[in-house]
Amino acid sequence: MNRVMSAAVGAVPFDLALINASIVNVNTGEVYPGEIGIVGDRIAYVSEPNETGLDAASRYDCGGRFVLPGLIDTHVHMESGMMTPANFARTVIPHGTTTILADPHEFCNVLGLDGMAYCAEASRDILLRVLLAAPSCVPSMPGESNKMAFGPDEVGRLLDIPAAAVLGEVMDYVGGVRQDDRMMAILAEARKRGKIIQGHIINPTARELAAYMAGGVESDPESRLTDEALRKLRSGLVLECRNGSSARNIAALAPALKAAGYPVNATLATDDREPDDLLHDGHIDEAIRQAVRAGVPPVYAVQMATRNAALFLGRKDIGGLKPGAVADIVVADSLDDFRVGAVFVGGVLAAERGELVIDIPAGTSPIEQRNTMNLARLPVRDDFLVKATGETVLLNAMSFLNGDPFHTTLAPTRVPVRDGMADIGSVDGRVTMAVLERHNATGNIGVAPAANIGLQRGAVAGTVAHDSHNLFVFGKNVDDMVAAATCLARSGGGFAAVLDGEVLAEIRLPVAGLVSTKPVRELAAEVDAMKIVLRELGIDNHAPVNFLTWFCLAVLPEVRLTDKGLVETTTQRMMPLFAS
Amino acid sequence: MNRVMSAAVGAVPFDLALINASIVNVNTGEVYPGEIGIVGDRIAYVSEPNETGLDAASRYDCGGRFVLPGLIDTHVHMESGMMTPANFARTVIPHGTTTILADPHEFCNVLGLDGMAYCAEASRDILLRVLLAAPSCVPSMPGESNKMAFGPDEVGRLLDIPAAAVLGEVMDYVGGVRQDDRMMAILAEARKRGKIIQGHIINPTARELAAYMAGGVESDPESRLTDEALRKLRSGLVLECRNGSSARNIAALAPALKAAGYPVNATLATDDREPDDLLHDGHIDEAIRQAVRAGVPPVYAVQMATRNAALFLGRKDIGGLKPGAVADIVVADSLDDFRVGAVFVGGVLAAERGELVIDIPAGTSPIEQRNTMNLARLPVRDDFLVKATGETVLLNAMSFLNGDPFHTTLAPTRVPVRDGMADIGSVDGRVTMAVLERHNATGNIGVAPAANIGLQRGAVAGTVAHDSHNLFVFGKNVDDMVAAATCLARSGGGFAAVLDGEVLAEIRLPVAGLVSTKPVRELAAEVDAMKIVLRELGIDNHAPVNFLTWFCLAVLPEVRLTDKGLVETTTQRMMPLFAS
Fold first, then answer.
1. ipTM of the complex
2. Alpha helices in A314-405 (DSSP H)
């Protein structure tokens, strides 16, 4: 601190000066030539416009490029990157991200309280500044079969850990709006600690939104519609404009940002992005590009990812090129086509031309070794067979429309009966789907037909299944289903695609059945290979791996399969398999 | 909370609906017709544009007028209003102010730690939301004779009281920039508690400003120049644009706000306003009018006093018409000529057409009864006489230019000697000035000539003398000086003007010698009467009472008189009375 101040007044030289920079001033929206003086991990001085010649021990010539604060993602589940925190950091820092607010609710659904502990431990000393959200909705809905349910006591304990900056997305907005006791008690835990409360509410009416906000919710990443976004901005909610792998909402939200005068209560977020998207397309830098393409002024797009994010998070030490702030700085080639050239983290050059130039230790945690495939027993054929009588039987099924994973409908399906079993796979456009509880060895297995997934042959299994992350498997062929599910039961989890008994592709995610310890390039290659196989098997979706992960999420409309069977999600009622 | 949420979703009616309103949406900058639903002290719902017909137990017809959040003053010394907190609240609420950040450093200079305790106690239950600053600079400069000096321990204790929202203005910016031990330790106390740090730095160079901010300072109300303001805005400092009684800076700052794209890091503040100005011209409403007159867009002027202030203060419950926020709401007749028509505080109609319509209890505190005129003894003629030999003597004097209280220069003055005494009063344009220590009965008295105050006859005394608030008296006539000083020594403090032994006007401020328990109209009448007398005696200043209060502030350039004698403030060195 003292050395920072001494350098600021010119009593001692700076450690490092960024020279020949076009400074993007996120406070005023101006862009002007200047220099930046750094001491230790802090910004000590940002020059006046056109000032040159800062006295410094070393210099970095920005070559006239744009210099701005490190980028902030205000809402991300690192687990969707399928990487450990260290590998996530190695992946996103070259894209300019220096701070994320990570909600480890996937880890927590599998590991319980250890999920938060793991994320906190594995996020230490990885250069990336990781703020954590204490998950509010574990499970996402009461009664789901995840590892354990977090009540107010558990959430309170998580909020007390030093890295916990916020209460994570309050997804149970039905509970939030209708004042369900558990949800109200959890909100109270956050309020009494003065914590920020992040939300999750899809296209609410103005009245629903008001009730939800009156409960204390301050932000939301779920806007998909222009009107929805403008309603939220007017209400003072912080609009977290999302560019995920599946949910790419920025083009729809840009007109709302314009109508709201490019307000301070809007940030950028990624929520869920897969490893290959992170590697190839980028992270918040890609969100900025999407915003600019959608007509958002480039400097405002940068302000969303820096100043606005820091204001939302109540952090004064990040999000601005400000004396005393942490020297997290991005050098970008252009503002219109936002390409990150160099990244400084805490005053140290961390990445150049998309490559990390500094070592980030991998870190290890005993939790990474834990096998979370806790099935009652290995799966067998009988688990996936539906006994029936007569010539045909009418079964309830969930059906996907246009490859949209976020909305299913009920599609009762007439299925022929052969040898006392419903032969679901024989029906065109239908597969048998099963969900096997894998956390507490209850032996629960839900089975039902599913329609319009696209699969023509073989079977696919996975353990990334929002939010309970049980083992799901679906196929045209019961033997292949057994093979795919068994593969994952033995490997510790991930994804497997099987045809005629042979595993054609596998993504191994042994850490909680959610993430790999492999570096992003290897992992992205596995994901790419899986995508090719899934398309070969008939799943013609633009993000086929991500597509699979939403099949069991009982907070999405209208029908989902869980380990307990089909759920009508709009009413939260179980549905019989046999339609009447 | 639950009832707020229930009303929001429409399950029960609102307690109150504001109908027929033009809603000024400070989140988006839009203005549109709508309604507001209130439950208890909270905003439960802000309607969609053009939505009408909210179901409520009672209604308030806004008659198409503008509705916006209650106004916030981010930096004010209530003591300059010369009123108790309750009377201050009664005065400013009808002008639309519902929250202030008050820095009680005047009280603390006189009352020590009890100054903060008094302000906290007397600010409870007065409808106005009073956030307190723990004063960082008591005294304003080491070595001053105030009641007691606050070191890091005292400031730490004050920061721990619940009402303490921030560390008050770090006026010792020399200490702040040069890393004086005491100042650094005080800053550390604030930083370790995560408190906001308010600043006070006059036209710094970019380098000085950077050092000051690196120490943790986040805001400043002292900008008087356009360039100075733009430099501060670019640096990310929160620019508190001031409209005080003497310091009226908004016209000069408006071009900087424009150049900075009307940024989020700018608020409105009053710092020091006298009772008659508060009563007749107003408070933050007047600052908004000044801003609009200076070319600031009206909605942005409102945003400065609401959204921006709340963001700076880290308060989510004020500064916006937001579900769940406190129902502090202003109804204004116009945005261009901002006149407050009605004010709701916590959902209750508190003022209409400039008049309070609700009772605010006066409150009492034993501290209000405390006599703080702790002189060693009553003043006598000899105290104000300067012994000298020869026919004339050259005395150092401070001199005012153009009635500006904020800048004095050294003006050595040749004075005739009569009967062994320097006859200062006989010199045209010169008065004898004395400062008597009044806190700890040390008997310290400083005496020196002063130039260009304007006084032609009689004498004037006061106990409001930033920041140590010792008893000052100046006059053409030593007998009148004794009479004026004696008047205040007996009354408990305030201001007195004497001619030929007769007290022509007096403002009685018995609480700490700084404020009165009288209501604003009586007090403003006393101040008006005093101004007339001061002008009759020759003090031709646009704010003559306020003018007097700066004579002793040893942090202002270049020469000031204290109880220990003349100080060269630029070097902080004592000056001899006799010039060589």
1. 0.93
2. none
